[in-house]
């Protein structure tokens, strides 16, 4: 059975991007420095390799419209799996005609997640985007959260959990602590 997993890097003060949609720092990538701690983009740390392998093993992606558009829908190919984007507005031209693996879903987060899980079969659904994560939590369709907690305070920007409908209980199922980040995996309690 498919599991939906939000995978996000987050500053200690809860931000996933600065006010300009960059990931912080002078190079705009501070929240992702943990994946290559020596600054070598070709050299992944052991935890980064583990998380990259998990992402590649996913069977579908559920991404918010803002995230999908900021990433240009990953060029229409997020590691070769279908991408589902919940949105009440129709997709732009690239997503509509140029990206056959991208599907916009107009009838809500529950439908988008159901379609993503059906497409993923027995593999996980990778979830991207703060608003989408909040909606999925509110609808009870997000199963797990993989948070890469970065030891930096951005001081402003876009928060991951800015608006939630109620208290949501989580269970810690894995912690990997490194000098660059603490990687915490949670299961949503139902």
Instruction: Name the average pLDDT.
Output: 90
- The structure class reads alpha/beta
The coarse silhouette is globular
Query: Number of DSSP strands?
Result: 10
Unreliable residue stretches: none
Give a short synopsis of this structure.
The protein is of the alpha/beta class and 190 residues long. The chain contains five helices and ten strands.
What does this structure look like?
With 190 residues, the chain is an alpha/beta fold. It is 24% helix and 27% strand. Strand 4, helix 3 and strand 5 form a beta-alpha-beta unit. The longest helix is centred in the middle third of the chain and has 12 residues. The two termini are 17 Å apart. The model has no long low-confidence stretch (mean pLDDT 90).
Keywords, please?
190 residues
List the helices and strands and how they pair.
Layout: E1 4-11, E2 15-17, H1 46-56, E3 60-63, H2 65-70, E4 83-86, H3 93-98, E5 102-105, H4 109-120, E6 125-128, H5 130-139, E7 144-150, E8 158-159, E9 170-177, E10 182-188
Parallel strand pairs: 1-6, 1-7, 3-4, 3-6, 4-5
Antiparallel strand pairs: 2-8, 7-10, 9-10
């Amino acid at each position: 059975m498919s599991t939906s997993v939000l995978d996000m890097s987050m500053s200690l003060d809860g931000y996933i991007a600065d006010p300009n949609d960059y990931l912080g720092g002078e190079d705009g990538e501070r929240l992702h420095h943990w994946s290559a701690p020596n600054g070598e983009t070709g050299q992944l740390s052991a935890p980064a390799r583990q998380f990259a392998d998990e992402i590649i093993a996913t069977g579908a992606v559920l991404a918010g419209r803002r995230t999908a558009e900021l990433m240009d829908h990953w060029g229409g190919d997020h590691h070769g799996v279908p991408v589902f984007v919940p949105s009440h507005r129709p997709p732009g031209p690239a997503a509509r005609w140029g990206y056959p693996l991208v599907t916009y879903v107009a009838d809500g987060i529950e439908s988008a997640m159901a379609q993503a899980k059906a497409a993923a079969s027995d593999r996980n659904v990778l979830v991207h985007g703060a608003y989408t994560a909040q909606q999925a939590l509110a609808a009870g369709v997000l199963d797990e959260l993989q948070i890469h907690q970065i030891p930096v305070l951005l001081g402003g920007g876009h928060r991951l959990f800015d608006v939630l409908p109620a208290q949501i209980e989580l269970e810690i199922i894995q912690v990997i602590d490194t000098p660059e980040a603490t990687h915490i995996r949670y299961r949503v309690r139902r």
